[in-house]
Amino acid sequence: MTDHIPPESETARLTFLGTGTSHGVPVIGCECPVCTSTDPRNNRTRASALVQTGPPDTTILIDTSVDLRRQALRQRISHIDAVLYTHHHADHIFGLDDLRTFSDRQGRIDCYAAPATANHLRRVFGYAFSAPDITEWGGLPRLNLIEIGGPFEINGHTVIPLELPHGRHVTVLGFRIGALAYLTDCNGLPDKALEQLHGLDTLVLDALRPKPHPTHFSIAEAVDAARRVGARRTWFTHISHRSDHATLAASLPPNIQPAYDGLTVDVRPQQS
Fold this sequence. Notes:
Elements: E1 12-18, E2 48-53, E3 58-62, H1 68-75, E4 82-84, H2 90-93, H3 99-106, E5 109-113, H4 115-124, H5 126-129, E6 143-147, E7 152-154, E8 157-165, E9 171-177, E10 180-183, H6 191-196, E11 202-206, H7 219-229, E12 233-237, H8 245-251, E13 256-258, E14 264-267
Parallel strand pairs: 3-4, 4-5, 5-6, 10-11, 11-12, 12-13
Antiparallel strand pairs: 1-2, 1-14, 2-3, 7-8, 8-9, 9-10
């Protein structure tokens, strides 16, 4: 059950809610070997993750993917303390309305985003951020939208945002929490971000497909980036239907592997 928090000796527990691209896998109408595969690891909902850390016990959602309801039911998520937004693209935000199920039960939820992403959320979900706080009919997610520009804390746990390029014109945020870093939808590691990743145990990294792409790491580029970071282990996410899970896993080093929906990993304390 996903509500379990790791013991104090563990820094964090990471659950991959979704590991797919904006299209998801299978892709609508596609008959390729991956989209028709019977391997459940090739079924990839839109990219999102859950981080559980403590003490105090804290559950952090990274992005509200368009598949959030399905992911929350699958992983039996019943409580969210905070949401981190990497950027404003549809596959990463369009599940925001499903937060109302959580806020109905637990009260207002803090959502953290860069100013540009926060502005986009206010435009797209104006009913949630501009309308009166009407609670009698349960129609609104109750959220506190907090703009971030540097490290901040959630229940005493430090979160470090890292600015990353998503192509030439979009900057996304990666997030470091303790010895874990989650970097999706990116195609470069600036020097500052690389410095912020020192001593990492677990790295989650964008790895779209075998061929180069203008806004995402290819598989080979992601392997090179993972080696530069030097985490104990790296998990790839945001994987397209161009990669079969078993084939990709066999082609990679043992400490660099593709993640899959529902995978849960424990993060060790920070390396020296």
